[in-house]
Amino acid sequence: MKPHRNDGIDPAARSRARRRALQALYAWQLSDSPVDKVIEQFRAEQDMDIADLEYFEALVRGVVAHHAELDAVLSRYIDRTMAQVDPIERAVLRIAAFELAYRPDVPYRVVINEAIETTKRFGAEQGHTYVNGVLDRAALEWRAAEIQGARR
Q1: Per-residue CA distances from 112 to 47, 95, 128, 139 (Å)
Q2: Residue 3: inside a domain
Q3: Residue 32 sits in which domain range?
Q4: Kindly report the CA angle at 75 between 73 and 77, in degrees rounded to 5?
Q5: Closest Cα partner for 18 from 47, 58, 67, 74?
Q6: For the residues of 33-44, what is the DSSP string, one character each?
Q7: Is 5 within the bounds of a domain?
């Protein structure tokens, strides 16, 4: 039997980590505070016991460190500038882009589904359809081999 890719990973804790990362990145986007300050403040204010804290921090630090590169790729698939994208949707797109580019251990379908569900919960009414369309195209660039393998 083939081992599962996410052995030892709690999917619910990862989902909560993504939602908290969204909230932290939203705050970072609006305040432009140093990432350490955002993470410290978020840890003090939020109940992080039920989230995958290590994954939360990896997402927030990764997005902040690579946001210009992620935005450059995402900008090829959006119909406006990144600054014009709704702040919630922008943060969701950046998190998903980071996972697609830097977390090959997370299947692309999981990345896209989590982004859609998070946008449904926190974003504009039809924001999830926009996020889905952008990420479907971006995934072809970042995860072409995985997508081709899944289609066989």
Answers
A1: 25, 10, 10, 9
A2: no
A3: 11-151
A4: 90
A5: 58
A6: --HHHHHHHHHH
A7: no
Judge whether 103 lies within some domain: yes
Q: Is residue 54 a part of any domain in this protein?
A: yes
Counting the structural domains of the chain, the total is 1
pLDDT averaged over consecutive 10-residue blocks of the chain (152 residues)? Answer: 53 92 93 89 71 91 97 96 95 98 96 97 94 96 89 71
Token pair, residue 78, equals 């959006």
Burial (CB count <10 Å: 0-12, 13-18, 19+), residue 141: middle
pTM of full prediction above 0.85: yes
Smallest Cα–Cα separation from 73: which of 139, 130, 126? 139
DSSP state of 95: H
* CATH code, domain carrying 87: 1.10.940.10
